[in-house]
TrEMBL record:
GO terms for biological process: cellulose catabolic process. SUPFAM superfamilies: E set domains, Galactose-binding domain-like, Six-hairpin glycosidases. Its EC number is 3.2.1.4. This is Endoglucanase. It comes from Paractinoplanes rishiriensis.
Length: 748
């Protein structure tokens, strides 16, 4: 048979179609087959998958001949290749029908520890991948996966990609099958025991509550046991009826009167025993640091050192080293500007390689706010290259991003001088996995926007007051940039980033900027005390509006960030009593939602439609409760924060902690091009302390659409790397887990 190579990376594709994975995940959220009638006859698509006396019609890459031995096919895989697709075995001319389910199975063995990337995909450009899995090999094993095709084609292939190894190895294959017309797999999440707790820790003197999923309508007895299994407290559950956010009938358990510190506690009710948890504060002291250490590993433009992050070392991304095209000399999209900018550095926004000023803004704001509001954060060692200098590590880390934001400002003398470019990212979407240093795409600056400019104004104004003690020149530079940006935004109040500009990166389109004006004016006023900014605050419609909506603040709505800072930081704005009262009123709203919620969630989205990044919204609403506590000293707001975190750490419908490495079962496979262990066992999972986006009712990605169709609220989440709509990681989500865990760590 003709030998055929796969010339292009199969993952050089729009991420919309890059991945369909049916893998059983590390968290135990497993795909479970449920018996449903087959749609049609089951039809084998692969010819001669048993390699009976010939290898035809399979092909292999040039220089890697197939040999038949003991009824299977084997190859000597050459060493020294770079990409997985550099050497492969496969079969072409396979027909797939969109919407039909297929069972892809094979027996494989290989040199221990080597990896095969088994795919079903398009055999011709643009090489879409319909399904992939990358098992680690050893002795012969049977592998079997079911997926549903999302396209029809007569030009599909099954292929076994074997490249990327420095040293040569051996691979053998048998019984390759792609069976069409099989029953689709019904995804049923493995939610473990029906007693749901904060799997990390309850604070000794804090509230302590759990949720029991049960058919029972009358109260049930519960028991709290210590690590030795002895009953240390008991009581009766409170039936709460059907919870709208999950559709489950639930009871709650209140065990706040038990306060003895310890590890390995469990709660038992209705014949089920919860996952273990601690009573203590230490985990939050660790998390406040881990959540901040996340930002170093997101850095662009610098090598990540193994000495500082064992297991996470990688070369510098987007410096001018091939195949990167580098961020040192980036032009605009065609027709947008006639200059280039050096925008090296900053943090990668998320699992993509883009850098976006609006999302940089809210993230920087929140971390600098942590610095201002929670003084213990100033002393944390984040184990970063700058550790040990005389500047607090938190400020050094944030400066990495601030410098990037400042570099995104249009230079004097150019059209729209003083405005900020909305974003910089790849020209086309790339697939996964892809280390930042391996991204071959050209980078482009996108048009300026009023929102980005005001994000720069707000955060540079914040920086001006915060960095003053450590670097007065930098503080002055930041203040000048903030003033210039604010004036430029006032002169160009309607430069809205296009909601259609979403190829190669996200849009972050923000069509309402009155909130950003208010926030920027607030930060400039707090820093300078000047009347011009005071006048703008008082004239803003946001100043008297209820800014505490379903979610308090996010990249798209920033008024509450301004309101919180006016209420809590020293300033002489007239009418501060009303400003502070408005924060307390916002907190009352979230507290009432939380008290009505049997999982203790102070987030009640309209029509139970959970937002993209809901984990961060739940946390940001807790920031408002924390603010109310700090303003009034009232314990009910503090208890609200402590109750609210339980949901994040496992007291939820899925029984999962949304923070990697925290809790017995936690999110591990967040969508990322470089923490892509689910796709390549040689890569790491996200570092401990990484927050997953969480339930998103709109399930925009294909994995969520295949697995979660019809999901109710809290169930709209899957810990799969392909689910970018429910399971990404981002800088603006790790900022709130950092802020809230830091606040909690300070409470005991
Ligand atoms: O978090 C963002 C969410 O609020 C938006 O609805 C969504 C669509 O624009 O984009 C999300 O942000 C993504 C960004 O556009 C690109 N980097 C990854 C971000 C998280 O998914």
């Amino acid at each position: 048979m003709p030998i055929q190579c796969i010339p292009m990376p199969l993952w050089e594709r729009s991420r919309k179609f890059a991945i369909l994975s049916a893998a059983v995940t590390l968290t135990g959220v497993a795909a479970v087959a449920v018996a449903v009638p087959a749609l049609a006859d089951e039809v084998e698509q692969v010819v001669n998958g048993g390699f009976d006396s010939t290898t035809d019609p399979f092909w292999s890459s040039a220089g890697m001949p197939m040999t038949l031995a003991e009824g299977k096919v084997c190859v000597d895989v050459p060493g020294g290749t770079v990409n997985r697709w550099d050497v492969a075995i496969g079969q072409n001319d396979i027909e797939l029908i969109a919407g039909e389910s297929y069972r892809f199975s094979f027996d494989a063995s290989g040199t221990a520890g080597k990896v095969v990337r088994a795919i079903t995909g398009l055999a011709v450009a643009p090489y879409d991948t319909y399904f992939e899995n990358s098992p680690v090999l050893g002795d012969t094993q049977h592998y079997e996966y079911t997926f549903t095709a999302n396209a029809s084609t007569e030009q599909a292939q099954v292929a076994f990609q074997l490249g990327g190894s420095a040293d040569p190895w051996q691979f053998c294959l048998d019984n390759v099958s792609l069976l069409g017309g099989v029953p689709p797999e019904v995804y049923v999440p493995d939610t473990g025991p029906r007693v749901r707790v904060n799997q990390v820790a309850y604070l000794p003197n804090g509230p302590k509550a759990a949720t029991v999923v049960t058919e029972a309508t009358a109260a049930l007895p519960w028991q709290l046991k210590n690590a030795a299994g002895a009953v240390v407290a008991q009581g009766s559950t409170a039936p709460r009826g059907v919870d709208a956010s999950s559709g489950q009938n639930v009871h709650t358990i209140n065990f706040k009167n038990f306060s003895r510190r310890g590890t390995g506690y469990t709660l038992t009710a209705d014949g089920e025993t919860s996952r273990p948890f601690d009573i203590g504060v230490d985990a939050y002291k660790k998390l406040r640091t881990d959540a901040l250490k996340f930002f170093y590993t997101q850095r662009s433009g610098i090598e990540i050192l193994d000495a500082l992050r064992p297991g996470y070392a990688r070369p510098a991304g987007h410096v001018d080293v091939a195949p990167n095209q580098g961020d040192g000399n980036v032009p605009c999209q065609p027709g947008v500007c006639d200059y280039t900018l050096d925008v090296t550095g900053g943090w990668y926004d998320a699992g993509d390689h883009g850098k976006y000023v609006v999302n940089a803004g809210i993230s920087v704001w929140q971390l600098l706010n942590e610095y201002e509001r929670l003084p213990a954060s100033r002393k944390l060692s984040l184990t970063i290259p700058e550790s040990g200098n005389r500047t607090p590590d938190l400020l050094d880390e944030v400066r990495w991003e601030l410098d990037f934001m400042l570099a995104m400002q249009v230079p004097a003398g150019k059209p729209f001088a003083g405005m900020a470019h909305h974003k910089i990212h790849d020209k086309e979407w790339t697939g996964l996995p892809l280390l930042p240093s391996q991204d071959p795409q050209p980078r482009e600056l996108h048009p300026v926007s009023t929102a980005a400019t005001l994000n720069l104004a707000a955060t540079a104004a914040q920086a001006a007051r915060i960095y003053k003690t450590f670097d007065p020149a930098y503080a002055a530079q930041a203040l000048a940039a903030a003033r210039t940006a604010y004036a430029a935004a006032k002169a160009n109040p309607d430069k809205i980033a296009s909601p259609d500009d979403g190829v190669g990166g996200g849009t972050y389109s923000d069509n309402k900027v009155v909130d950003d004006f208010y926030w920027a004016a607030a930060e400039l006023f707090i820093t300078t005390g000047e009347k011009q900014y005071q006048a703008d605050i008082l004239a803003s419609p946001e100043h008297t509006a209820d800014v505490f909506g379903a979610g308090a603040f996010d990249w798209g709505y920033t008024a509450a960030a301004g309101r919180l800072d006016l209420a809590l930081l020293p300033n002489k704005l007239p009418g501060l009593a009303a400003v502070r009262q408005s924060v307390v009123a916002g907190a009352e709203k979230y507290l009432a939602q939380q008290q009505a919620h049997p999982y203790g969630v102070g987030y009640a989205p309209a029509n139970n439609m959970w937002d993209w990044g809901s984990s961060s919204i739940v946390l940001n609403n807790l920031v408002v409760l924390a603010a109310a506590h700090d303003l009034t000293g009232k314990a009910k707001y503090k208890d609200g924060v402590l109750t609210g975190i339980d949901y994040i750490f496992g007291r939820n419908a899925l029984n999962i902690s949304y923070v990697t490495g925290y809790g017995e079962v936690s999110a591990q496979n967040q969508h990322s091009r470089w923490y892509a262990r689910q796709l390549d066992p040689n890569l790491p999972n996200p570092p401990p302390g990484t927050l997953a986006g969480g339930p998103n009712s709109s399930i925009q990605d294909p994995v969520a659409q295949e697995k979660l169709k019809g999901c109710v609220g809290q169930f709209c989440y899957i810990d799969d790397i392909g689910s970018w709509a429910t399971n990404e990681l981002t800088i603006n989500w790790n900022a709130p887990i950092s802020w809230v865990s830091a606040w909690v760590a300070d409470q005991n």
